[in-house]
Every structure is written in C-alpha cells, then in structure tokens.
Please model this.
Amino acid sequence: MRSSHLCCLLAALRAMAVCTSLVHAFQAPMRSIPARNTLHASAASEGDSIDKNPRPTNYEDEFPLPDFEVPELRQLRWEREALAKGKYASGDALYELRRTIAYLRNELIDTRQQQQIVSISNPNNKRMKHRISELEKELLELNGRDAEFVAAVSRELLAKAKSAGDEGLAKKYSAQLDEARSQIPQFNLHGLWVGKYGENGYEMINVTYSDDTLIATKLTGDNNVPKGEISFTVDLAHSTAALDPIELNSKAAKQWGKSFLPRFVGKGQVAAEGFVNPTWLEGQLILVGRFFSFAWLPLGHQVFFGRPSSELTLKMLRESKSNELRSDHVAVMRDAMEEAWEESYWIEREADNFFDEDGSFE
Ligand SMILES: *[C@@H]1O[C@H](CO)[C@@H](O)[C@H](O)[C@H]1NC(C)=O
Model:
C-alpha cells in the first residue's frame, strides 16, 4: 500500500537526516512536544520554535507548559505579563468596570456643580468636598485597572517626556505602555491565523502591527487577493471611543463564556480574478475569546479566524510554497522530496485536529 511505502520513505529520510531546512527546523519540536497549543503559539507568534535554554522548574505552577525548552527572554516576558494580568480587568469584567467608571464620573460632575453653588458656610459644602475627593480617588484607582486607559495615558506622557528631552521618564512611560499593551487582546494577535474564505477555502494570514494599525497579510492566497497582499487592516487607535461591543443573548453568552464582544473598525481588501481592480471595503474585526472574525460589511462576508495547529501551519505553508516552485528544475525535485515527507506525515496523522483546541490568547 502507498501509505506504508511512504512511511518507510519517511523513516529512511529521518534516519539519513536528509531534511530540507524547513523540515529540519520543525521536526524536533514537533515530535517532542506533547501539547500542540504551546508549540503553535511559539512557532506562530515568535518564529523561534527551536529553543535552546532549559526552563527553570518554578514555572510549573503559573504556566501549564509541556516539557520543552523556552528561551530566557520569553520566560521573562511571560513573568512580566503574568504580573500585569493581575492588575487589569479583562473580558466582561472590563465592561462592568467601564460602566462603573461612567456612573461615578457622572456623580463627580454633578457633585462638583452642586458644590459650586452651595455657599461655603453651608455644612453641605464640606460634605460635598469630601465626596468629590473620594470620587476622584476611586476613579483614579478604577481607571488604573483598564489597560486601554493606562496605555492611552502612558502614550501621552511618553510623548511629553520625549519632547521635554527627559530620557529617564520616557523610559518609564515606555515600559508602562508596553506592559498595558501586553494586556489588551486586540494588540496581541500577532502571528498566524487560519480562516475559511468562502468558496476560496482555508487561507492563512500573518497579523502584524504598525503603531495602532493591525495588518493581516496573506501567507496563502487565492485568485482574487493573492499571497503577499494585505487581506485587511484594523484601526485600533482610540478603540474605547469607537464602537460599542456586541452584546450577546444569554444563550450565546453561555456558549462563548462572555456577554460582550469588542469590535473595531477596519478595511478589507477585495479584487476581481487575477488581483484586478483591488478595492478596500468597510470592515469590522470582532474579538470572540480565542477567535476573531473579520467582516467585509458591504459584501456581508465574514471570516472566522482561529489559531492553526502547528501541523496545519506546516501543511499550508508548504503547499503554498510547492505550487510556486514548480517552474524551477532543482526546486521541483526538492519539492517532490518535501511532498513525500509531507504526505507520509499526513497519512500518519489523518483526522488529526485542524485547529488547536486551546487558544493561546484569552
Ligand atoms: C509574520 O510577520 C512577522 C513580522 O513581520 C515575521 O517576522 C514572520 O516571519 C512572519 N511569519 C511568516 C510565517 O511569514
């Protein structure tokens, strides 16, 4: 049977260590890591899946990591982020927090107005003053639990410190900005995602950021918008003021584990066959826990994206590459070797999961 023949070929290839660099790069971690979710997170967002430094054992409790090696830099980043996570509200709690803040802010405005028209000799004046200072303190504390608020304030202070030439202060606010941003989900979607583009089937995108703009570049494409082109962009500046979250009914809320889904304004690219007449349409990105969707609004077209498993990532990137290489003689041979490796790999793991069960962002 073909599959057993391919398995032999695979075994032989492994034994001889005849690997292309790509195969080689992924082979070791793929076979030694029990939990795919962590591998894909590392392979996808960091591009450094071959880690050399051993992980100290005291990470076990905070991070449910499989037994594999993580570079020191990333360990430090995780440590910082775990600390930051406790500081900020997330998910539905963030919307409750903002509701409370809005309520208290109104009370503050009212009390200030009243206090101004009450004469100083009136005993109510003192009481109001006291309430005002209480409200100010409370608002300061509550706003400090909203990572987007802290990021916005830090960005402003950073700009001021920079223009004043105060390097020490600039460094402080820059670190504060980074820390807050690390806890804002829409700023932490870096890396690879897979979504089904209607009739065009599954496609892979790479999410990167340029300042406050999220950019989704196609790593695999189709006849309309090909590989290498931008699929969509999202404007994340001033996001708190932009769009109200989608509020789910209780049944859907139960299913997703949250009632409020944050939304952001974007632009989605479309084109006729052959990337003719590319056009940018109004769009929206919606965060749904560990997934997100992007909608091309005028078309009523919505694509859900999930983190690909490491297996799917390899498969899609290789397929896309092998299509490209067919015109090149040497490349065609290498291509054939890769395909053999790949096919056997896939036969071994048929019916394996397409997407990760556990998301890496939550
Ligand atoms: C995704 O983008 C990042 C940042 O530009 C880059 O380092 C990485 O190699 C890209 N990933 C792939 C698979 O192209």
Notes: The CA atoms of residues 86 and 145 lie 9 Å apart. Strands lie at 191-196, 202-210, 213-218, 230-235, 246-247, 260-261, 263-272, 276-288, 291-296, 301-306. The pocket of 2-acetamido-2-deoxy-beta-D-glucopyranose is lined by residues 47, 206, 208, 219 (CB under 6 Å).
